[in-house]
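Run: sequence + calcium ion -> complex structure.
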Amino acid sequence: MNKNLKVIILAAGQGTRMKSKVPKVLHKVLDKTMLDYVIDASLKAGASDICVVVGHKSMLVRKMTGDRVKYALQKEQLGTGHAVMQAEDFIGNEGSVLVLCGDTPLIRPETIEKILSFHSVSKNAATGVSFIKEEPTGYGRIIRDDKGGFVKIIEQKDGTPSELAVKEVNSGVYIFEAAVLKEALSKLSTGNAQGEYYLTDTMELIKNSGKAVGVMTAEDEAEFLGVNSKLDLSVVTKALVKRINEEHMLNGVTITNPENTYIGQNVEIEPDTIILPGTTLEGRTKIGTDCVIGPNTQIISSEIKDGVNIKMSVIMNAYVDNYTTVGPFAYLRPGSNIGEHVRIGDFVEIKNSNIDDGTKVSHLTYVGDSDVGKNVNFGCGTVTANYDGVHKYRTTINDNAFIGCNTNLIAPITVGENAVTAAGSTINKDVPPHALSIARKRQVNLDGWADKAGKK
Ligand code: UD1
Ligand code: CA
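>> structure
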């Protein structure tokens, strides 16, 4: 139904009230920028073409947002109406245009669809969206006549006390017929308290030109919370955390304390997994069934299969196969590919390495740029020395090898299958299969030395 849906997203403002060097729309809610939420919701609602109006630090906003949208530049931020004027070419003369704000990240695609059908069923030239806010300060107020018909939108700074007492506020979401919008924009002026071109005034102008203008009142206020300050950002984050966690719980995931568990919108979790407090799951993370994740664990864009247990650890861009345990206090860095029934214990760091099934890396070990076979046992304190200051080299450890405590493996190097390295060895030559390699100074005991040195 929305095959030709054009969307304009306003994102040029600095967001002075954020008191930040980062442009407002780039502030993150959980793991994604506010602007990305609005773009994703538009795409899910079937947007065919999106134009983001950028201005303040526009290059940074474009860089962070990428090329899945078009951009229009608003050189000076002269108001929301002026921002839409910059997208004039994009608006064209046919069809309808949806306008959204980049600082309203919680809008749902289903709601966008509802607004579109309200607009077309009502045959409006322009449709606004309002919601009821008990504490309406900061929002534009929807002024209606005795019969409930739309009259105008009054901004906080321009309102009389009786207008400001109105609790029906403007969400900042609108849909316009393209040609009607363009005409109204050309009539905007700056005669208001802020000296700005207000997009809100187009609604009144269109109505006064005799065309149908309506305002749809939305039910869920949380969806339209606008972020103007870091305080608002925390309110929006809390609302999103609640929304996402409730969905997972209804889907069969146990979340012990949903108020301090932070799960990004693109994370997938299978039923019967338990998420313990203090856990943050980000990016395109996928978690299987029967896992126990947390407490205090951060997982970014990783795939975790079934029955995995991860405690107090950080995992990024990694893969962990069935029934493996990780942590406490482990760090799996990008390119870690961990097999089934593996044990990654405390203070272990793995980077860009394959660790095959049944291997145990139980404590205080660094494995970087390595290919480790099945059922290998790492003693405590093993280090793969993969970097000579210029180049990185790989370490290969074959099946069933036994790496003694405090072994340094100087890459490039291969330890053969079933080979053993003695504790405290610095191994810089390949170890043949089934061999024992000892590379350390022999111990010398000097009889009576301590007494002669005056030690008791
Ligand atoms: C705006 C509405 C208000 C509504 C509220 C909902 C106007 C005049 N007021 O107020 O009725 O209740 O949103 O959240 O529209 N922007 C630009 N260029 C500009 C100015 C703003 O691109 O010159 C962008 C901002 O980056 C932001 C959005 O427009 O993403 C809204 O601007 P903001 O200044 O936050 O408007 P509000 O005061 O919240
Ligand atoms: Ca705002």
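>> summary
The chain is about 20% helix and 30% strand. The longest helix spans residues 230-250.
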